[in-house]
């Protein structure tokens, strides 16, 4: 299906249904074990030897086929329906959905403040699974709330690691922004995602789990400080225009000043339209965030995450493409680079 939720997939959502309208919606936030069951993710991953056919020509001229074991790789199969999930290296150790759930349970137990399961599920027939943990809201300014999240994701197809990503969602505009650790001495923003390779049982990695929790706590406090600093940094109209031009050209290409053909004219009109949407967002949220660097970065992230057209031939595909891009893809990358620009501006 276009939204990558196949008939063998499942999902559970706390109160708010997903964009594709599928999955179970519950009024009370589920426990990790409840989410695992409701989302139909209690299945395991079976590894089997991989064989390849080798054809040889016999003395009698007859072609003989022999199946030969591939020592470097094995195949991952879904335990409940026997479907192939992926071909992986021989030293690949699966992290089961149950183990990921236990890890999330330990994160919730150790985290400070109230943390609950917001959603959980699988896509692509179980090749990718996730648990989304939601923390307590904090305020940047009155009426400008931020919800911190922890996204625990894992892949069974060999294409992705087990990953814990601290992120956040601004209530006013639903902008998604990965939490980062700012360094005022270098003007850098350090990433905070923690990845685990599929080489051993995840629950054996106690020190890594503690490290993930420590990073999450440090990152959340650092992100709060940075957001507050950005909200206090007033920006002039010239700075806002300069910020937009630098961000837009980096993300979408140069803006032709004197178009020489139809393609350049369309590029110029797209840029003017984008600036109009960006400026409208900045003005609309001025009462909440003021003429600040915080308002500026959110106006731009709102542009790339919500206003620019998403890819896809049908509405569901476009929404899904945008949702994935906003959280883990190109739109998030653009948001993080724009955040770095705004942060460097706030230091000046």
Please explain how this structure is put together.
- The structure is a single chain.
- The chain is of the alpha+beta class.
- The chain folds into two domains: 11-43 and 93-229, no CATH class; 233-347, no CATH class.
- It is built from nine helices and 14 strands.
- The strands form three sheets. Strands 1, 2, 6, 7, 8, 9, 10, 11 and 14 form a nine-stranded mixed β-sheet that branches.
- A hairpin with a 4-residue loop joins strand 12 (181-183) and strand 13 (188-190).
- Helix 5 crosses helix 7, helix 7 runs antiparallel to helix 9 (330-347) and helix 8 (315-328) packs across helix 9.
- The longest helix has 27 residues, at 206-232.
- The radius of gyration is 24 Å and the shape is globular.
- The termini are far apart.
- Mean pLDDT is 83; it is low at 311-320.
How big is the Rg? 24 Å
Q: Please, how many helices? A: 9
SSE order, one letter for each helix or strand: EEHEEEHEEEEEEEEEHHHHHHH
Largest sheet: 9 strands, mixed
**Tally of structural domains:** 2
Q: What fraction of the residues are assigned to beta strands by DSSP?
A: 25-35%
> Poorly predicted ranges (pLDDT <50, ≥5 residues)?
311-320
Q: What is the average of the pLDDT values?
A: 83
In terms of structural class, how would the helical and strand content be classed? alpha+beta
Shape: globular
Number of strands: 14
Q: Report the end-to-end length measured between terminal Cα atoms.
A: 49 Å
Helix content: 25-40%
């Amino acid at each position: 299906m276009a939204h990558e939720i196949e008939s063998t997939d499942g999902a559970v959502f706390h109160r708010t249904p997903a964009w594709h309208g599928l999955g179970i919606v519950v009024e009370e936030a589920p426990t990790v074990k409840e989410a695992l069951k409701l989302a139909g993710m209690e299945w395991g991953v079976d590894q089997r030897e991989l064989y390849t056919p080798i054809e040889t020509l016999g003395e009698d001229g007859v072609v003989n086929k022999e199946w030969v074991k591939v020592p470097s790789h094995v195949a991952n199969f879904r335990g409940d329906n026997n479907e192939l999930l992926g071909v992986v290296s021989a030293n690949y150790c699966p992290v089961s959905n149950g183990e990921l759930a236990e890890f999330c349970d330990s994160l919730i137990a150790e985290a400070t403040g109230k943390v609950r399961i917001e959603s959980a599920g699988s896509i692509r027939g179980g090749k990718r699974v996730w648990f989304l943990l939601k923390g307590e809201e904090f305020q940047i300014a009155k009426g400008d709330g931020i919800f911190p999240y922890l996204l625990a994701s894992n892949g069974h197809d060999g294409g992705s690691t087990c990953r814990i990503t601290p992120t956040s969602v601004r209530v006013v505009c639903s902008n998604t922004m990965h939490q980062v650790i700012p360094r005022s001495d270098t003007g850098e923003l350090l990433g905070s995602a923690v990845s685990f390779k599929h080489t051993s049982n995840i629950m054996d990695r106690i020190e890594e789990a503690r490290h993930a929790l420590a990073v999450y706590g440090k990152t959340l406090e650092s992100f709060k400080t940075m957001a507050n600093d950005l909200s206090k940094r007033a920006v002039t109209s010239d700075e806002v225009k300069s910020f937009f031009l630098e961000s837009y050209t980096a993300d979408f290409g140069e803006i032709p000043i004197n178009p020489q053909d139809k393609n350049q004219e369309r590029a110029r009109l797209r840029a003017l339209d984008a600036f109009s949407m960006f400026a409208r967002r900045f003005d609309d949220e001025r009462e909440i965030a003021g003429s600040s660097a915080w308002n500026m970065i959110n106006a731009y992230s709102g542009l790339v995450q919500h206003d620019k057209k998403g890819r896809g031939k049908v509405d569901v595909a476009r929404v899904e493409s945008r949702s994935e891009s906003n959280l883990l893809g190109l739109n998030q990358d653009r948001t993080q680079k724009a955040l770095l620009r705004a942060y460097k501006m706030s230091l000046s």
